[in-house]
Every structure is written in structure tokens, then in C-alpha cells.
Amino acid sequence: MNSGNRQLMATAAIALIIGGGGGYWIAFSKSAPPVAAAPAAERKPVFYRNPMNPAITSPVPAQDEMGMDYIPVYADEQSAEKPKPVFFRNPMNPAITSPVPAQDEMGMDYIPVYADDQPTEKPKPLFYRNPMNPEITSPVPAQDEMGMDYIPVYPEGGADTGAPSGTVRIDPTIVQNIGVRTTTAQRSTLSHDIRSIGRVTYDEQRVARLHPKYEGWVEKLFIDKTGDRIRKGDMLLAIYSPQLVSTQEEYLLALNNAESLKDSPFPDVREGAASLLRSSKERLQLLDVPAHQIEQLTAERKVMKELHIHSPFDGIVMNIGAREGERITPQTELYMIADLTRVWVIVDLYEDDIPWVRIGDTAKMEVAGIPGRTFSGKVAYIYPYLEAKTRTVKIRLEFANRELALKPEMFANVDIHSSKQVDAVVVPAEAIVRTGTQEQVFIQRAPGEFEPRKVTVGVTADGRTQIVSGVEAGETVVTSSQFLIDSESKLKEATAKMLRAGSQDAGNTNTGDKP
Predict the structure, then answer these.
(1) Is it the case that residue 21 has pLDDT exceeding 70?
(2) What does residue 347 show for φ and ψ, rounded to 5 degrees?
(3) Which residue, 366, 400, 394, is CA-closest to 381?
(4) pLDDT tens digit string along 191-216?
């Protein structure tokens, strides 16, 4: 009984489902609007296109490797005239091409290239450059030792822009990678302080070397120690000289003769006696006999054995050349005396510092032996010659030394404050590229475009260089990596010269072919 009930219930459920579905269909059929009539002409696909690679087509329906249906393409979806590929290019190596569709080793389809994608005229390479050494070139395609192809070099594309020869154009990314830095040329006032080493020495105008004008012997030394400080007129030594004795006797004879003939009735006699007296006295004076001894000789009428030599000025005894009892001649240096109240300081300057120094410039000096004290002086003289061994020019500074603190042969640190100032266009010194025959800078004409320009430089001070001609204030100059740019610029100039030479050769050939 249970089995019969179950079958009855299943049959009733199926009937209910069928009845409900039929009623829904009838109701939908009555409420649905009528379907629009089909168009008179049905569109027909022209061809079918691969959904993943539009370059692959099929005249009939098809599927790609992934099972995706090709997309139908209708006539109204195409342009009036579809361009035809000129050739097909390898997607991984654009240098490899094919006149017909093809695939590379990885199964990738070649990319079609149309006429609109090509330049109207492809430039012809000027030459080919070694990729590892740009200085090695070849007029025809070649390879280096590693099998790498030489890189073709074409004429400058912007030759008609008016850019000077040698102008370099570099990609902004490369400019950043090689560390190119620039700055603006400015009009500024240059001044320069020079620091150098000096040597203290004597003032040559305040040094005396005493030599006798006769032969004799040193009877007595009154100043017998070097380094003694003496005053003008101090007695230095006493000398006995037979020549001085005879000269004294002649003077006394002339003196007695003049006194005895002063009342003579004959004027010529009186004048001759007076003239003889004057000449004998002058002879004593020319032999450096001091005035007080001549007065003593005149008063006492007695020949003196010892005659004295006195100091000509205040100073320091630097050298004594004879001792008591020593025979002397005119070649003997008796004393060297120096006035050290004013000293010279000799400073060596390099050639590039000479334009800054003028006579009268102030100088400050410090010496290790007198710490904490600064001496002030001035430039007194610039020597007119160059020292061959040191390649320096000497200048002379003068310093007051009333306390005798500065000693000859001291070394000193000297600062010379130049009074010269130059108002000029200046650039950083590192912006100058010195080739050995000329100086040049690189001007940034535009982002990534650099022009080499010859300049005339002036003085340099504090890392800045004067530009006499070649650069105007406000122009942008390169201050770093200019040597890399310079190498590329020289290659560009060589290219331009080759172009000009080739044009001239072609012109000559054409001219020669004419009848």
C-alpha cells in the first residue's frame, strides 16, 4: 500500500509541473509583442580576424589555438582602401625583415609595416663607428673582434637649425646619468688676496761695509763684538798708516808755509800758499781722516800715529773683518753695519698672481718667532725678471722694525691685499676646457643641446675666471662632464668635415663630367 501511494504522489507532482509550465507559456505568448520583420538583405562577413592578433585573418569562420572564434569583419567596417604592408618586421629584432608574413623562432608573427610608417627618405650613413671604441671607424659595415656590428652614423638631422659646428645633442636621460651640471655666466667684480711665504732680509739702502783707503795696521779696536748696537759717529777702531803720516806732514808744512806768507806783498805768493794748504787738507779728508782729528792736527801741529774710523749711522755690527795688530789693505772689510729699523721681506709669486700685484698694495705678515703679532707693510718693488729655476717673480715688501723684533733670514707668512678689481663676465674655473692650443666652454643652447665655443680668458680669482670674449652674461655654461661632451663634439666636427669634403668631391666630379 505504501508503494502504491508513493507512485500516485509522484504522478500528481509531474502533472502539476507540466500544467504550470503550459499555463505560463500560454500567458507569455498572449502578452508578448509581435517580432519585427527580418531585414530584406542579410550582411555577409568579408573575412574573419584572429581576436588575439588582428594581423591574422581567415576567409571562413575559424578558431585560434585557445579555441576562441575569429571575429567577423563586415564591408562597412573596413576603410574605403586598406593599405597594403610594405614588408614585415621581426618583433624582437627590427633589423630583420621579410617581404611576406612570417614568424620568428619563438613563434611570434612578424609585424606589418605600412608605407605611412616609413620615412619619406632614409639618410645614408656617413660611416660606421666601433661600438666599444668610437675613435675606430669604417666607411663600410663591419664588426669588431667580439662580433658586434659597427654603429651607423648619419648626418645631423638638425643641420638646418643654424647650430654651430660641433654642437652636441644628448638625450636628457643621458645628460642626467653622466652628471652634467650647468651654471649661468654672471657679471661680477673680481678681487684677489695672495698668500705666500716671505723671507726677512736687510734693507740694502741701510747697509754699510767699511773699507780703508790706504794700507796700514789696526792699532786698537773700540768695537770688538758683532751684534753690538752703535750710534752714528761712534769710534770703531784706530789705524796706523805710513801714508797717513806723510800726508799729515805735508799738511803741516803747507799750514806753516801759508802762515809765513800770508803778509807777503805779492798776491800770487799768498794765493799759492793758501792753495797748497787747501789741497793738503782735502787729501786728508779724502782719506777719511775725521774732522776732529784734522782740527786737532791743526791746533797741536803734531803728527798723530793713530787715525780713527767712525760709524756712518746708527745700526748693528754684523761683521768685524780685522783684529788688533792685523795688517789691512783697501780690500779688507773692516766692519759691516746694518740699520735694522726698517727691513725688507722678499716674496716669490707665481706667474698667474703677478697681474694682481701693484706697487703700494698693503701686506700683512706673521712670523712664527713672534706669535700673536701682525706686521703691516706695503709692496715697494716688483723685480723685472723671472727666476728660471723656480718660475717665480720676486717682489719686495717694506716693514718698519723700530723694536728690532724682525730678524734677517726669518721666514714669514705674508698676505697681500690686492687693490686691483676687475668688473667682468665670470664663470667657474672648472667650466674652462683647455685643449693646449685654445680655451673653450660649452654653452647650453637648449635642453640636451650643447655648443662648444672658443673663449679668451683673463685673470682667475677664488675659483672664478674672467671671460674677456666669447661668452655673454646670462648664458648657461657646463661645469661638469664637459670632457665627455668634448669627445662627442670632436666626433661631430669630424663628421661635418667629412660631409663638406664629400660635397666638394661630388661637386668636382660633376664638374669634370661636363663636356
Answers:
(1) no
(2) -120, 135
(3) 394
(4) 888 999 999 999 999 999 999 999 99
Q: Using CA atoms in the order 467, 469, 470, 473, what is the torsion angle rounded to 10 degrees?
A: 60
CA pair distance 498, 97, nearest whole angstrom: 31
- DSSP letter at 353 equals G
Q: Which of 287, 298, 310, 292 is nearest to 238 (CA)?
A: 310
Q: What is the pLDDT of residue 434?
A: 86
CB of 243 closer than 8 Å to CB of 250: no
pLDDT in the model for residue 53: 82
Distance CA 195, CA 373 (A): 17
Task: Burial-class residue 237 by CB neighbours within 10 Å (0-12, 13-18, 19+).
Answer: buried
**Distance (Å, rounded) from C-alpha 260 to C-alpha 253?**
11
pLDDT in tens, 287-301: 989 999 999 999 999
| % pLDDT > 70, the chain | 81
- Which amino acid is it at 349? L
Q: Which grid coordinates are listed for 296? A: 786737532
Q: What is the rounded CA–CA span in Å between residue 185 and residue 188?
A: 9
CA distance 303 to 283: 15
Give the model's confidence band at 496: pLDDT under 50 very low, under 70 low, under 90 confident, else very high.
low
Give the separation between CA 443 and CA 477, rounded to whole angstroms. 5
Strand partners, 146: none
Comparing 65-79, 161-175, 401-415, 447-461, the range with the smallest average pLDDT is 161-175
Beta-carbon contacts of 70 under 8 Å, excluding residues fewer than 6 positions away, are 48, 49, 50, 51, 57, 58, 61, 62, 63, 64
The closest of 363, 366, 361 to 376, measured between CA atoms, is: 363
Bigger pLDDT: 115 or 284?
Answer: 284
Check residue 268 and report its DSSP letter: H
Give the span between the Cα atoms of 310 and 335, in whole angstroms: 11
